[in-house]
Amino acid sequence: MWMQQPTPPRPPRAHFSGIGGTAMVAGARLALEAGWNIRGSDLPLYPPTSEMVKALGVPVATEYAAANLDWDPDVVIIGNALSRGNPEVEAALERRLHIASLPEWLKDVVLRRRRPIAICGTHGKTTTTALTAFLLDRAGAAPGFLIGGEPLDFPHSARLSDEGSPFVIEGDEYDTAFFDKRAKFLHYLPEIAVVTSIEFDHGDIYDDLAGIERAFRLMLRQLPQTGSLAICADSPEALALRPHAPCRTLTYGFAQNADFRGEIAHVASGLLSLRTWRHGKRWGEFRVPLTGRHNAQNALAALAVASIIGCAPDALRQAMPDFKGVRRRMEIFAEHNGITFVDDFAHHPTAIRETIAAARMRWPAARLWAIFEPRSNTTVTNRFQGELREAFAQADIIRIGPLHRAERLPEDQRLDRTTLTQELQSSGRDAQTVDAIEEIVAGILEKAQTGDVVLFLSNGAFGGIFNRVKQALESAPE
Predict the structure, then answer these.
(1) Which region among 1-5, 18-22, 393-397 has the lowest average model confidence (pLDDT)?
(2) What does CATH list as the number for 13-101?
(3) pLDDT digit string, tens, across residues 52-105
(4) For residues 174-197, b (16+ Cβ closer than 10 Å) or e, as one string?
(5) How far is residue 385's CA from residue 419's CA, in Å, rounded to a whole number?
(6) Are 259 and 279 in contact (CB under 8 A)?
């Protein structure tokens, strides 16, 4: 008599509501590699996010609807851009489906079985995460990773590693979900944590710098005594975390007393020559294919992590020059008649200042344009009014674009763009406030000269300005 064969268990099912988020599409990639059955939904998406989602090869609805959950998922992963009133949020709650934030799901499914390396801090997280994953990969550590951007050295922004291996993850201090207002990095169970810097940001989540500092101190409580903390010695606020660490610490940076100290020897052909010392002993010299002091600090952070893991300096030295970086981080997206067009994600005043300084370092003879979209939840307010004036001081020509979703803010709380441009003009800068994207593009094409560098600064789509520039250049005379 034939015995009936048991039915094999079906793969677990996850629906990603808000799958177009940078971290969400990366999480969906990890779920696929872990053997999950995946579907998702979002509003209509645009490149590059639409391309990243399409590459998943899974069904994705282009609107939010209760019917999207009818396929009986085991868990509905809710992106942090969604809130009450969203049809899928309401349907999941009404049906009492298992809902989870992406960080919570990552903790339980991915991170518990691996050796998490959380790259945290106000600035430099994405580049440092990508570089750390790249160096560990080239050194043979076979890491997994989740990068909050589009890396140019890997086919995707996330990769699942074998259990027990390193997993490099970008540790964001922003909130987790509408039902979990804790910082994302409080879910990441780091064995190694990096803190690149601490400054005030995310004014919609935190009242002041003290609130952010508290979140970082709470993150440190997850570290095991056998773990490690790498903190930037050049950031006083980050360095103040050291007494709160329950594990060994390694400071890195340019400060003379840093445990892992760096020194920029010279800059040539887009490469930094970075000399390093570990506990006072020469550790190696590295050719870093990034520009700017802040990127040298990012490289030091990645090297410090690699040293903790036990990677050989020679392997890291050979790998470093091949790093291609991350899309939208000092990315040249067009060149025309000797004019260079650069896209960068900078939106915090410190990031803007350092990005402009990096451009000065890379193109010292250029006339430098800074085209800025006030878009983040903090820079659309007047919280950084004075800091933004200082941030643009090294640019020659400044254009301040429209405030993103200005109608959501009372007028007395909005960034005063008129005052900002007037103050820049009084310091000798060519500064203007421009509301129409078409006018910004037309003004650049009319005024830009051979040798100019046009730097676009935004953490969003900037009204499609990048494609509009490309289209305008295609029809412009040579």
Answers:
(1) 1-5
(2) 3.40.50.720
(3) 899 999 999 999 999 999 999 999 999 999 999 999 999 999 999 999 999 999
(4) bbbbbebebbbbbbbbbbbbbbbb
(5) 9
(6) yes
- Three-point CA angle 339, 345, 347, nearest 5°: 110
Q: Is the CB of residue 352 less than 8 Å from the CB of residue 378?
A: no
Instruction: Round to whole Å and give the CA distance between 39 and 13.
Output: 8
> Given the DSSP bridges, would you call strands 144-146 and 158-159 parallel, antiparallel or unpaired?
antiparallel
DSSP assigned state of 324: -
pTM: predicted TM-score of the whole model, two decimal places: 0.86
* Domain 110-322 class, CATH top level: alpha beta
Give the CATH superfamily of 331-475. Answer: Mur ligase, C-terminal domain (3.90.190.20)
From the list 311, 309, 295, the residue with the least C-alpha distance to 196 is 295
Q: Domain residue spans in the chain?
A: 13-101, 110-322, 331-475
Q: What pLDDT, in 10s, does the model give residues 325-359?
A: 888 788 888 888 899 999 988 878 888 888 898 88
DSSP 151: B
**String of DSSP letters for 405-472:** TGGGS-GGGB--HHHHHHHHHHTT-EEEE---HHHHHHHHHHH--TT-EEEEE-SS-GGGHHHHHHHH
152 C-beta neighbours (distance < 10 Å), count: 14
